[in-house]
Recover the amino acids of this structure.
């Protein structure tokens, strides 16, 4: 199963029908175009496209977009707090585009360092992927695939927001703060990765 966010609305691609508001059986490329159009241009908040061959559906779907790959980190300290960045009024996790020839593990550690100032993070394990679609200023549609890694941090380095990337704050937050402060002001993909990996609800 794949969960893709389109304007913060959920498109679920699955083998069997899911219990969502609107369901479309996969009948080829046009089904996917209709689903994306409904999410972009109507009040429909979630759609499920389902069909027997999920990999064929996913392959057709990725061909609709330019694919950009990114990597990021869910960084946890010894107080069981998670590191967040604040950009344009939203809470987010540090992440960024994978450079040519770079492994996703390297990219995730590099991006955490660049965006937060922490160079001594310890890479732990791969967590999950998230997917979202956005439109560039030139009208080109992008499917962004982000690979997330759990990381640990035990150092004493100063947190330094990468202001040239629009980051205004870098802060550690505990579970109560994540529920009360982060969740109301973050992206659906970030909620997904936190719920999947930290059982935060």
């Amino acid at each position: 199963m794949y969960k893709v966010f389109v304007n913060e609305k959920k498109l679920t691609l699955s083998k069997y029908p899911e219990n969502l508001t609107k369901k479309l059986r996969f009948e080829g490329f046009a089904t996917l175009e209709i689903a994306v159009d409904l999410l972009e241009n109507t009040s429909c908040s979630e759609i499920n496209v389902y069909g027997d061959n999920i990999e064929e559906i996913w392959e057709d779907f990725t061909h609709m977009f330019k694919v950009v790959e990114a990597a990021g980190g869910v960084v946890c300290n010894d107080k069981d707090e998670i590191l967040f960045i604040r950009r344009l009024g939203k809470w987010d996790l540090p992440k960024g585009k994978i450079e040519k020839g770079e492994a996703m593990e390297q990219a995730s550690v590099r991006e955490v360092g660049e965006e937060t100032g922490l160079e001594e993070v310890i890479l732990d394990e791969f967590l999950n992927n998230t997917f979202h679609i956005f439109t560039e200023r030139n009208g080109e549609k992008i499917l962004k695939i982000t690979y997330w890694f759990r990381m640990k941090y035990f150092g004493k380095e100063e947190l330094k927001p990468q202001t040239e990337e629009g980051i205004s704050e870098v802060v550690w937050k505990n579970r109560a703060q994540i529920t009360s402060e982060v969740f109301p002001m973050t992206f659906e993909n970030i909620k997904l990765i936190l719920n999947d990996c930290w059982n935060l609800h």
